[in-house]
Write a structure and sequence with these properties.
Enzyme class: transferase
Protein name: histidine kinase
CATH class of the largest domain: Alpha Beta
Radius of gyration: 23 Å
CATH architecture of the largest domain: 2-Layer Sandwich
Number of helices: 13
EC number: 2.7.13.3
InterPro entries: HATPase_C_sf, HATPase_dom, His_kinase_dom, HisK_dim/P_dom, HisK_dim/P_sf, Sensor_HK_Regulatory, Sig_transdc_His_kin-like_C
Distance between the termini: 41 Å
CATH topology of the largest domain: Heat Shock Protein 90
Oligomer: single chain
Number of strands: 12
Shape: globular
GO molecular function, one term: phosphorelay sensor kinase activity
CATH superfamily of the largest domain: Histidine kinase-like ATPase, C-terminal domain
Largest sheet: 5 strands, antiparallel
Number of domains: 3
Length: about 350
């Protein structure tokens, strides 16, 4: 998937012929491919079927749960009843939740839900689990829907500008340059969203013990803050060892700092401080931006959530940065909290286990 987008981006950057650029798959096809890519990266068993109850896609987790041959293509076009032998699928329309017993005696639960893919395809999703997880099926499906929705705007822009360049032969050269720049910008945005989703998937699958290291958090913060003009780090300690993944910790802190810099304003200082407890090191990131309304603070770490009141300031964001930072903190045995007052800035606290 990233290769397709990289090809599109390279063509636009090299200003290859308009015909070559528009040979890239249509936005509908690419959107569908991206949606199936999302399903493949989720940690839950997912089967997508069409209105005739034929399989459009079955992900790796579902194949493993159902102990099916490891061949995605073999199942495409097959009836869902060949995979899940349950009268519930015949007798009831979605939405529906039911359980069924496999031929090896295991009971699996299925959430059978309609999914509005677009105006063309009528799809239904079957979410398969061994047991109920703490995550509600509705929130899992909403996460997929929200992620897919993030692809719509950049894909529509790419398609629209490419079609204009192809169909209108008398476009001034400066307009062509402008449209190519917008194609590049939207392709880069799509690439960033996909990279973030891949990173989230990697974190959610768990960090192996050999990637967790002891490292100096003071040194890491100094390296990060050197990259920013208006970010100041205050600490009375020269060296402080913590336990975690240094590269992922850097990604998490960068996400929080970039968020603070963006919304705090170019001339506003962002301050980092350190606090120590018996179990954790707390890294405080304090900004003087617009703050976060109280009703948004509980959602601020949700995937793709963006504060409505500040969204217009930076419409190009993915809404994944703080979600990734939260997942990294939790995966390392830490956490992130936020304190904020609308109109008076925010303080994010990143907790990481200390030695």
């Amino acid at each position: 998937m990233l290769n397709i987008l990289k090809s599109y981006l390279n063509k636009a950057q090299k200003k290859e012929t308009l015909l070559d650029i528009t040979k890239t798959p249509s936005s509908h096809t690419l959107y569908k491919d991206l949606f199936l890519f999302l399903i493949e990266k989720t940690l839950h068993g997912v089967i997508v079927i069409n209105k005739n109850k034929h399989i459009v896609h079955i992900n790796k987790v579902a194949i493993e749960l159902l102990k099916l041959p490891q061949n995605h293509d073999y199942w495409k076009g097959k009836s869902i009843l060949e995979v899940i032998r349950s009268r519930s699928l015949l007798q009831h329309d979605p939405p529906l939740t039911f359980t069924f017993k496999t031929h090896w005696g295991e009971t699996l639960s299925v959430d059978y839900k309609p999914f509005k893919f677009n105006d063309i395809d009528e799809l239904t999703i079957l979410l398969i689990q061994k047991k109920r997880t703490t995550e509600d099926p509705e929130s899992i499906l909403k996460g997929l829907s929200d992620a897919a929705h993030q692809f719509r705007t950049p894909l529509a822009s790419i398609q629209g500008y490419a079609e204009t360049l192809l169909e209108q032969k008398d476009i001034p050269e400066e307009k062509k340059e402008e449209f190519l720049a917008l194609i590049i910008k939207n392709t880069e945005r799509l690439t960033n969203i996909i990279k973030h989703i891949l990173l989230l998937s990697r974190i959610r699958r768990g960090l192996s013990s050999d990637t967790i290291k002891n490292f100096d958090i003071i040194g890491l913060i100094n390296e990060i803050t050197e990259l920013y003009e208006n970010v100041k780090f205050m600490s009375d300690t020269d060296r402080l060892l913590v336990k975690g993944h240094p590269d992922l910790t850097q990604i998490a802190l960068n996400s929080i700092i970039e968020n603070a810099v963006q919304y705090g304003g170019e001339d506003q200082e962002v301050l980092l401080t350190i606090q120590e407890s018996s179990e954790f090191v707390a890294i405080n990131i304090i900004d003087h931006g617009p703050g976060i309304p109280l009703d948004s603070q509980k959602k601020i770490f949700n995937r793709f959530f963006r504060v409505k009141e500040t969204k217009k300031l930076h419409p190009e964001g993915t809404g994944l940065g703080l979600s990734i930072a939260k997942e990294i903190a939790l995966a390392q045995g830490g956490d992130i909290t936020v304190e904020s007052q609308w109109g008076k800035g925010s303080k994010f606290t990143f907790l990481i286990p200390r030695l």
